[in-house]
Predict the 3D structure of the following.
Amino acid sequence: MSWKRILYSLFVVFISVTAALAGAAVGGIAVYRAVQGNQSASTAPVQIVSASSNTPQNAIVNVTDIQSTITQSVQKVGPAVVTVVGTIPGQATFFGSTGDQTVSGSGVFISDQGYILTNNHVVADTKSLTIVLSDGTQQPASIVGADQYSDIAVLKTTGKVPAVATLGNSDLLQPGESAIAIGSPLGDFKNTVTVGVISATGRSIDTGQGYQIENLIQTDAAINQGNSGGPLVDLAGEVIGINTLIVRNTGSGAVAEGLGFAIPINTAQAVATQIIQNGYIAHPYLGINYQPITPDIASAYRLPAQWGVYITSVASGSPASKAGLQQGDIITSINGTAIDETHQYLNLLLTYQPGEQVKLGIIRNGKSMEVLVTLGQSKGG
C-alpha cells in the first residue's frame, strides 16, 4: 500500500472519530438541558405563541399563588360559617305519633349583632334551632323571618359572633371565575371546603310548587345535602352567593354531576335587609286560589288557553274580589306579559309591589277581556 493511501485512510478515521465525539457531546448537552427544564417546569414561565403574531409571549401561571389565595379566602370567611341544626316536631299518624326529626344545613354571619343568613328550606317547620360554630361551640338561635320564594331566611343568636363575612357584588360575576363553597355536607363534615368555578349566571330552576327560583348562580363546586345556606365565596374572600340546591337527575332520567346553584348575594342581602327591618317580606297579594294550566291540562279539559291559571275561588274582600274577578276566570297575562312555560304566574306577580295597579288579561266564558287590579300586601312567603 502506498504512503498516500495510508495517509488518506488515517484522515478518514480521524474525521469519523471527531464527528462521533461531537455528536455525543451535542446529544449530552441536549439531554442535560431537557432534564434541567423538566426539573424547573413548575416555576418557569410558559411560552405561548400568539396566533396573530410570530413574537413569543410569556404567560406565567403560579399554582402556589392560587392555592395561597384560596387558603386565605377560606381563613377569612371560615370562622363566620356555622352549621344550622333544627328540630321538626313529630306528626300524628294512624299508627301513632312519629318522633321529632333533626335537620341540618349551613349559614353565615352577616352582622356583629348576631344575624345569620341561611335558606328558608333549612329552617322551615322547625320548632327549635341550634347553631354550631366553626370551633364546635353550640348556641341557640331563632328565626327572625323567612321568604319561601327567594329561599332566604335570617336567624339571630344572642351568643358570641366569632366573625362576620364580607359581602361581595354578585352582579359583577363572570363565568369562569373561581368559586369556593363552604358548609357542612350531611351535617357531619363541618366547614368543608370545595372549589370550582362560576359555570353560569342567570339560571332559573322550577321548584315544582308553581314558581321558579330565578337568577341563580350555577357552579361546579361540590355542593351536597347540608351545604344549603352556606356561602359561595370568591378569591377575595367575599360572599357572592348562598348555596341553595343541586340538580342530580334530569327529566330524561340522565344523572348529572357538578350542577350546583346559589342565590346571588345581592338578592339575599336585599331580602335579609327587609326581614331584619320588618320581620317579613312584603309580597303582592291578589287573593285567589288557582290551578295552573299547561297544554296537557288544557287539552284534557278542553280549555280555551294553553297557558295560564284557572281561578278556583276568590277571597272575600280581596283585591281580586274588588276588581270583579270570578271563579272560572282564566288569567292569561299580567301587564301584557303572557303566562307561559318561562313566565309562571307567581314569578310575574312577584315582579310587582303591593299597591301597584296591574292589568290582567283574562278569559271569561270563552271571551278575552282585561281587568285592572290594585295589588294588596301579603307578609312572608
The chain is about 25% helix and 40% strand. The longest strand covers residues 192-206.
